[in-house]
Structure formats: C-alpha cells, structure tokens
Amino acid sequence: MGGRKAVKPLRSIAIFGAVGALVAGIALPAFATSKPSEAATTTLQQLAAVDAQSLVVASQATAAPLSRGTFTATTPEEIEKKKAEAAAAARAAAASTASTRFNTAGYALVSPGSGEVRYPLPGGSYSQGRTIGGGHNGADMLAPAMTPIYATAAGVVRASAESIGGYGVCIMIDSVVGGQQVQSTYGHMTYGTRQVAAGQTVAAGQLIGFVGSTGRSTANHLHFEVWINGGMVEPYSWLAANAG
Fold this sequence. Notes:
This protein has 244 residues and is of the alpha+beta class. 39% of the residues lie in helices and 21% in strands. It has 3 helices and 10 strands. Strands 1, 2, 4, 5, 6, 7, 9 and 10 form an 8-stranded antiparallel beta sheet that branches. The chain has a two-stranded antiparallel ribbon with strand order 3-8. Strand 5 and strand 6 (180-189) form a beta hairpin. The longest helix has 62 residues, at 2-63. The model is unreliable at 30-37 and 47-71 (pLDDT under 50).
C-alpha cells in the first residue's frame, strides 16, 4: 500500500511535466515566430520614417535656387567689356537726347517746293561733288556745316544714329514714291543735330538734320543715297527727274 501511494505522486509529477513540456513546445515556437514579425514591422516603420525625412530634406534643398547674381563677370576682360558696353550705351543715350535740344530757330522746318519728292538741301546752298561709281554708292552734295537737310520723300525712319559705320551721324528713310519702294540715306551729319528717331513718320521736305563731316569724311558735305526697289540709282539724275 505504501508503495502504491508513493507511485501516484510520481505519476502526477510526470504527467504534469509532460503536459508542461508539451505546452512549452507549442507555445515557444509561436512566441518565437511572433516576435521577429513585430520587430520587422517596427523596422519597416522606422525605415519609412527615415525615407520620409530624407525626401523632405531633398525637397527643401531643391526649392531654394542658387543665386549667382554677383558672378556675371568673372574675368578682367569680361568686366572691362561690360564697362565699355555701359559707357557706349550712355553716350548713345546722351547723343539721342542732345538732338532734341538742338535749337532750330532761324532754319526752315520744311524745304521749299512741292510734290512727292524734294531736294534734300536748299537750292543754291550746295555744289555737286562726286556721284556713284568706284565703290561710292551716293552723291556728295558739298555744303557748309550746319546747312539744313530735309527728307526727300515722306516715309518712316528706318535708322537714326550718331554713328552708322562710315556714314557717321546718319538717317535712313523708307518711302513709297509712285508705287515704288524708295530708300534714302543721309550721311555725315553734324553730331547732335538729328531731328527724327527710328520708327518716326516724316513728311516730304521735313527738316531731319544738318550737314557735317562725321564718319569717313574729309570735308563738310551730305552723302545722299537713293535705292529704288532694292537697286541703287544715281541721285542727281533722280532728283532732277522727280523733285518738285
């Protein structure tokens, strides 16, 4: 009897031990498989947060453009070029305003005569110099400095500047005369005496400037050119045939 009583507790302990081992064997793998999953979830969330922060930083970095306004000229040559361009623009602006201040009192604002075509200089004020030929594209009308110059025909001023190549102070006018395209050029004027600007409409015989010796010139005269439909014509003959 005593031996049987001692065996029963041992059996109970063995049974409980077996049950405990079975529970541990079932529970531990489940626990083991659940923990890495949570760790993996946490790691993905952290990585997502890091990625989001990096995207925000990149977005902020590209939103602010780099200002390079103080580095437009980086060499002494570029700086000198910029200064020269600014000085030239200032001289041109001063010359342009100077022409509007020139006092035209005592000069006829319209040339004598009538008709679509007028002589660019007053009658008796000039003598004929050389004309076209030998690379010379116009007629030289020899006249004293400050002799008034008039538009030979109504039209629109295509160019008006204090320096146009060898013409010096020069004005060019596009006109239509008798249905033909006529371009007239007036070169070697006196500095600061231009009376019209590019884009301005002028009437036939309107005062546009004064005789000088600017550009490639050795004496006071008007260099006068006439082009019809793109072809050069002899100015003296054209004036004699058309000017009223």
